[in-house]
Amino acid sequence: IKMENAKKWSVKDVITLVLMTVLLIVIQLGINMVCMVNDFVSMVLSVGITMLVCGPVYFLMVNRIRKRSVSLVYMTLLGLVFLIMGNWFLLPWFIVVGIFAEIILWKGITPNRLTAAWTVSSLLYNGVNLLPIWFFWDTYYSFAIASGMEQSYIDAYVQYYTAPGWVVFILIFTMLCGFLGSLIGRKLIQKHFKKAGVL
Fold first, then answer.
1. Rounded CA gap, 101 and 195, in Å?
2. Cβ-based burial of 90 (10 A; exposed 0-12, middle 13-18, buried ≥19)
3. Measuring CA to CA, how many Å separate 11 from each of 17, 18, 162?
């Protein structure tokens, strides 16, 4: 199916994009909060779980709108949420993630390209945890203390994200979860949404 680039964005497209982006961000923040109960789950597994759960929603959003810039707008809005929460450096990062997704989808939206876009986005989403420790430690640390994070949580974060073995495991786990989320999205779209006339 070719992308309808000739067609302009409709009001319905914009509303769909905003609503589904809000849904994605709520899911992401919700999973983060639930995973905070355990340091290991929060540091090592939470990003992967997020990508797994959000994959099908992302697939549905892009398939419903079928215009360029959907991924870029979603990632930019996500970056703005992080900016509001105090991590300013994640806004430019997520804009870059969105651009990567757009490049992958540039020639048209196909299930394979969408899978590639979400898998790459899942890998790059780890910037949420890696950028602070590599480049913006002071900003992150003051944000963490101000938002009431316990020192033990911050220590665990440093422990996992400075150990090369853990970093490699986290990156691979997140990519695999994103890939699985894509496969679930593909299945759901083919089986249910197309039959139900949602797409």
1. 27
2. buried
3. 10, 11, 46
Q: Which two tokens stand for residue 192?
A: 């249910």
Angle between the 46-65 and 11-35 helix axes, to the nearest 10 degrees? Answer: 170
Token pair of 167 as six digits: 């970093």
119-150 tens-digit pLDDT: 999 999 998 888 888 777 877 777 777 777 77
- Cα(108)–Cα(117) distance, rounded to whole angstroms? 12
pLDDT range class, residue 2, cuts 50, 70, 90? very low
* Cα 30 to chain centroid, rounded: 13
pTM of the complete model: 0.85
Provide the pLDDT for residue 6: 46
Q: Which two tokens stand for residue 127?
A: 């910037």
Beta-carbon-side half-sphere exposure of residue 77 (alpha carbons within 13 Å): 17
The secondary structure of residue 148, as a DSSP letter, is T
Q: Say which residues have a Cβ less than 8 Å from residue 66's Cβ, sequence separation at least 6.
A: 1, 3, 4, 109
Q: How far apart are CA 126 and CA 73, in angstroms?
A: 19
Is-contact 27 54, C-beta < 8 A?
yes
Say if CB 159 and CB 152 are below 8 A apart. no
Q: Where does the pLDDT of residue 1 fall: very low under 50, low under 70, confident under 90, or very high at 90 and above? A: very low
